[in-house]
Amino acid sequence: MEKHSLAELSETEQRLVREAVAARQSAYAPYSGFKVGAALLDEKGVIHSSCNIEGADYTLTTHAEMGAINAMVRSGVLRLKRMAVAVQAKTGWAMPCGLCRQKIREFAAGPDVEVLGVNLDEAGNIREIYASTLEELLPYSFGPEHL
Ligand SMILES: [Zn+2]
Question: C or N: which end of the chain has fewer Cβ atoms within 10 Å?
Answer without folding.
Answer: C
